[in-house]
Amino acid sequence: MTARLAAKGIVKRFGGVTALDDVSLALDQGTVLGLIGPNGSGKTTLLNVLSGTMRPTSGGVFLDGQRIDRLPGYRVVRAGVAKTHQIPKPFPGLTVRENVLVAATFGGRAPMREGADLPEQVERILRLVELEPRAHAFASALTVQEKKRLEFGRALATGARFLLLDETFAGLSPDEVRNSVEVFQRVQAEVGFGAVVVEHVMRAVLSLAQRVLVLEEGRAIAEGTPQEVVRDPGVIEAYLGSEATNVAP
Amino acid sequence: MAEVGTVVASLVYGVLLGFVFAAIAHGLNLIWGVTKVVNAAHGEFIMLGAYGAYFLNLAWGLDPLLASVVDAGLGLAVGVVFYFAFLYRELRGKDEIGLQSELVTLVATFGLSLVLVNVGIIAWKGDPRGLRYNPGNIVLGGLSVPLGGVYVGLASLGIIAISHVFLSRTYLGNAIRAYSQDIAAAKLMGVNPTSVAAIATGIGFAMTMAGGAFLTVYLRAGITPFVGLTYAPISFVIVVLGGRGKMWGSLVGGVTIGVLLDVLQVFVPVEIAYAAAFLVVIPVLALAPEGILR
Predict the structure, then answer these.
(1) Do A106 and B175 touch (CB under 8 A)?
(2) CA dist list (Å): B46 to A64, A210, A224, B39, B196
């Protein structure tokens, strides 16, 4: 049975500012939802609400029908929704392997009880994100791209069925983006998680996502396949502007 | 040759005392490094550990080594209670421990320190107490070193090693290290921040109180409610010297101060030796403010 992550009627206010205004979304395990919009449109806030880092002012987040938006952040992870940081924040004084181990140990539903197959699971993650050769290096010694892969690997290691990826490809060179997209697609095919991908690199979103949700000033202004969305006149005006001619396939 | 023997024996004594200092300072360091809280009542838990050893000796004739095990168990429980009573309300839900939280917890624990000293005075009066523990002497280069001091020194080294293995080799230890480096990221890995911080505080207290039991062997002036006033500053100096949050820092800092105190006592009176040890620390910190360990 595939799991389903849904948000219904999310409103988030900071004082008098409405960051999210009645946003809903839903995705099945195994699919990728792209989340795009101009700066300050509420993308990161929406990820924070989905991951339990922030509580919505109203509305709810549901995982397989179970409400998860009132749980503390670490419980949301254990329930099966993990988030990566825009700027990777590995534990600098732990090795790459230990970083993954922490996530594998505590992110699972039964922390510390599944001791036997843990090392195996950690090795598998390291292989998936191509960090095996760096397993014993301290995380602080990694390159930016390696840190991003470690961030991805740690989220995977929690055993989450849904990953929330905040600008995973930002700050990478075009070659590195291409390489990272490949890694992402291969891992997704093997592990089969669902993902919400917030991304500025349009090419990456369009090639990864089956569906795209466009936010503007906290409202969802369009939703559809990547092809539909980039042709939507409202989206072009709000966000893509003249760029649209460059990214449309 | 007797001269050389004396120096060697004195150094051995200094290193052993340094191990005990290190165990005590390690308790402070662990709490400071993990929760970012400076426990101003640290000295009073050394004092309670020492009285624990004294009363266990009085009641059941336990030596400080056995008493330290009981003290450690008590310390673990007291540390967890302390976390929820003094730190939890201030730290819960925070991903960064700011200046505000540091000051609030500093004042709260300082208040606790005053309360504990005065409770100690009321309960046990100010008169010094000593416990009977004399397993004999070992002769080193013409100078006899008390075996009791050797045992507690090695036991101190033992508990530091155990805590190191715990922190670097166990799942819970990994989580404690992860929490100490980045609370927000640890939560995103599914680590429960409250239980990890409470357990780390408990382990810090266990080491502090066990160290207090070991210290009784070296307290030539006896156990008083004021023991903490001398040994808390020494712990702070050791932690700062070795580097906050560095696992081997307390050991290096402890041995440095232990040997320094011991060597200085050859040249100057005891009271001045303590002051002089602190003076020596000042240039070290001016040159290496992050501690002498890289």
Answers:
(1) yes
(2) 52, 62, 65, 12, 23
B178/A102 touch (CB, cutoff 8 Å), yes or no:
yes
* Whether the predicted pLDDT of A202 surpasses 80: no
Q: Which amino acid is at A26?
A: A
d(CA A4, CA B239): 50
Counted residue by residue, chain B has a size of 294
Domain boundaries A4-247, corresponding CATH code:
3.40.50.300
Interface test with A, best of B169, B181, B188 (most A CBs within 10 A): B188
User: Would you give the distance in Å from CA B101 to the centre of its chain?
Assistant: 23
Does B182 contact A at CB distance below 8 Å? yes
Domain ranges, ordered by start, for chain A: 4-247
Give domain status of residue B293, yes or no: no
Query: Which H/E stretch holds residue A194?
Result: strand A194-198
> Taking the model in full, what pTM does it have?
0.81
Residue B101: inside a domain: yes
On whether residue B97 sits in a domain, the answer given is: yes
Asked if residues A125 and A153 have their Cβ atoms less than 8 Å apart, the reply is: yes
At residue A136, the pLDDT reads: 92
Q: How far apart are CA A56 and CA A12, in angstroms?
A: 5
Give the domain extent around B93: 2-287
